[in-house]
Amino acid sequence: MRRRPLIVGNWKMHKTIAETRALLRELRAAPLPPGVEVVVAPPFTALPAAREELREGTIELGAQTMHQANHGPYTGEISPVMLHELGVRWVILGHSERRAYFSETDDAVAHKVRAALAHGITPIVAVGETATEHEEHATLTRVTLQARAAFAGLAPEDVGRCVVAYEPIWAIGSGLVEEPAGANAVIGSIRAAVEGLEQTRMLYGGSMKGENAAALLAQPEIDGGLIGGASLQAASFLAIVEAARARAQTP
Ligand code: PGA
Q1: Contact at 8 Å (CB) between 67 and 77?
Q2: Taking phi first (over 0 means left), then psi (-120 to 50 degrees means alpha), and beta for anything else, what does residue 146 get?
């Protein structure tokens, strides 16, 4: 079965409501290549406005994190019930910034994956190695551990409903990008490490731009991208979406 290319914009802590509306209007005005699925993940405060802007058209709405409980005494957190009510159908889980700055553990990611699936929200599970792990050739150990932990105990058909993003931490926001063949090999190893990932969309993330997207998306294992910096402007995001056109047309 062919896997549909998927490009996800992770806006991180950028964009006010007004800025969100402006960017989404620009994105909506552009003709998107057929067969490429496009998701944007604005900050929580901009989700209702984003939903309004995206009511027409095919761009879908994602969130950047969530809590695993439906409700409860968790000050500052947002639940899958709340996200679903806003039309959010995708959620990024275990992003390296969440893991590094907000103590998100493998165990929490596993709970969140189950909670998202239970509410009809597709988890985009981010895994990746640090610069030190990369230098010490510990990449495969790190990312397969993270992937196995995120999907532990989940039925293969449920694993198949998720998305995985391989994001080398040293490549995020740095302008450094993993070699396409290297990223392909790591993603292939992640796919092989967990039953059910054979048909799962696997994304690359980390300084993906219009200039390097085509080479990454030409790799057999790389089904799309998780885009940070380049998703904040319409032109740079659309260049990556456009680079996925060829993949969507490959039989
Ligand atoms: P970047 O971020 O594209 O700015 O490197 C990617 C990410 O953190 O998801």
Answers
A1: yes
A2: alpha
Reported as a pLDDT band with limits 50, 70 and 90, residue 1 is: low
If you average pLDDT over residues 138-154, what whole number do you get? Answer: 97
Give CA–CA dist 127/146, Å, rounded. 6
Q: Which atom of ligand 1 is nearest to the CA of 205?
A: 6
Q: Which of the listed residues 227, 232, 241 should we mutate to test ligand 1's pocket, taking the one with most ligand atoms within 8 A of CB? A: 227
Phi/psi-derived region of residue 170, left when phi > 0, alpha when psi is between -120 and 50, beta in every other case: alpha
Q: Domains along the chain?
A: 48-53+60-224 (3.20.20.70)
pLDDT tens-digit map of 51-87: 999 999 999 999 999 999 999 999 999 999 999 999 9
Query: Is residue 138 classed as helix, strand or coil in its secondary structure?
Result: coil
The whole-number pLDDT of residue 249 equals 85
Length of the chain counted residue by residue? 251
Distances (CA, A) of 97 to 78, 122, 130, 167, 222: 17, 20, 12, 11, 22
